[in-house]
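Researcher: I'm preparing a figure for a lab meeting and need a structural model of a single chain. I don't have an experimental structure, so a prediction will have to do for now. The sequence is pasted below. Please return the structure as tokens so I can convert it later.
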Amino acid sequence: MKNGKRILAVLGIIILLAAVSLPMFFAFGTGEGSEGRFRASWAVAIVVPVMGYVFWLIYRVLNRRRAEPEGKIRNIIFDVGNVLVTFDWKSYLDSFGFPEEEKQAFIKGMFTHPVWNERDRGSLPDEEYLNQCIRQIPGYEEDVRRVWEGIRHTISPRDYSLTWTGYLKERGYKLYILSNYSARVLEETKEFMTFRRNMDGEIFSCNVHLCKPEPEIYQTLLERYKLVPGECVFIDDSEANCEGAREAGMYAVHFRDFKQGVSELQKLGVY
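Model: Understood. Here is the structure written out token by token.
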């Protein structure tokens, strides 16, 4: 197949060179009809490259549509936080300059408290989760409200996300999102989640009221998009969430950084 493409490429170059050389060949012609042949050679010199370019564009479009993965993996499922975007609540909390005692109260009463994950579930109004944090961090209500108001600043974009997902899309893989994400933060950070345009489907915990690593959320993804588990690889920065995917029959990559993640995918035949 590759040799055939090389032969066609060489033939195309020869034809192109011959076409653009015709005007020079006929430029010195004499006799009856020489002027007509000269004009015709110019037409050929113009039309052949244009038609060649058109055929090349058509080939590119058709080849892209036919692109299909070659290995066992057909579907790539992404977590969002710390895979496609950075989620860094520690730096965000540090930015307030709270005394150590207050800072520890926030860590225990908000960011590592079960209420944080329950907020991703989205079963209650956002205000109710805020009130729960106020109760968990007594004596700091004003600061709790300030921190809560700017929660979107725990999220920042990663420069490789759009390019990476776009490349995998062009290779023929179906791409999906499966992420624990609160409704409010999803709305407030959507402007830099440009990689979503490359997705074939997505499930955010706040929309289905389920959270990873609960088995039901993996089944929801598989059933909604009619995916075969053995053809899927799930990428997440949490080993517990990866284990949940494996128990659902999928392959999983415990993501630590971009280079490592790509390397792990390659081991599964994803290039």
